[in-house]
Amino acid sequence: MTRCSRQYIPFRGWTTGYQDDFGKSRHKMLNMNPVFTKVDPDLLPILDELRRREPIFHNSEFGSTTAEFERSTAPDYWEVGASGRRYSRDFILGKLTKSVPYVDAAATGWQTSEFGLRRLGPDAYLLTYVLDQAGRRTRRATIWQSSEDGWRILYHQGTIISVEEDDTIPT
After folding, report:
1. Does 166 reside within a domain?
2. Other CB atoms closer than 10 Å to residue 123's CB: what's the count?
3. Are residues 6 and 52 in the same domain?
4. Which domain holds residue 109?
5. Which of 47, 96, 126, 166 has the least C-beta neighbours within 10 A?
6. Cα atoms found within 13 Å of the Cα of residue 171, Cβ hemisphere only
7. What single string gives the DSSP state of each residue in 33-74?
8. Residues 125, 50 share a domain
9. What are the backbone dihedrals phi and psi of residue 158, each rounded to the nearest 5 degrees, phi first?
10. pTM
11. Are residues 8 and 63 in the same domain?
């Protein structure tokens, strides 16, 4: 069985796609607790908007210039990288965007999957997903806020996935 894709089926969860022995595409449900990828049906249009902007800082829909990053992040934005380091908006805009070349996720083959979305308040949403950067898999969480000027980020965090098992006690 060769894995070829993953897709989200509303109200059912994530599937993994593969081709059977006869070359026909098939899908089977992943063994995943649906609480991790739950999306209220009313939020599906917002999920579609926000998932196009991820991964942040590596997606043309989010932006690719310092000015676009500035517009897309709240003044008090900060993040925790997969390394555990904390980064302020000022650091990202002032140093990181000038010293690290822009990387386009789609052009490099990075893949996002396992999206979840939860409303936190009238105009704030928690978007979660998995980012695969050529085998380096991380769980991502971004808090997005809808404003008069469009979407902007309040907070972001990445955590390296060291074990694929959920809801288990670590050994």
Report:
1. no
2. 11
3. no
4. 33-160
5. 166
6. 2
7. -GGGS---GGGHHHHHHHHTTPSTTSBTTTBSSHHHHHHHEE
8. yes
9. -125, 140
10. 0.75
11. no
Residue with tokens 């396992």: 114
CA atoms within 13 A on the CB side of 38: 7
Residue 156 is assigned to a structural domain of this protein? yes
Percent helix, percent strand, percent coil in the chain, to nearest 5: 20, 45, 35
Nearest CA to 126 out of 150, 140, 112, 143 is that of 143
1 and 47 together in one domain: no
Question: Tens of pLDDT along the chain (171 residues)?
Answer: 333 344 444 444 444 444 444 444 444 444 567 788 888 899 999 999 998 888 777 777 766 777 888 888 999 999 999 889 999 999 888 876 676 666 777 788 888 889 999 999 999 999 999 999 888 899 999 999 999 989 999 999 999 988 777 777 777
Tell me the two tokens of residue 127: 């978007």
Answer whether residue 66 is part of any domain.
Answer: yes
Do 80 and 86 form a contact (C-beta atoms < 8 A)? Answer: yes
Triad 125, 128, 130: Cα angle to 5°: 160
Specify whether 56 is located in the same domain as 104. Answer: yes
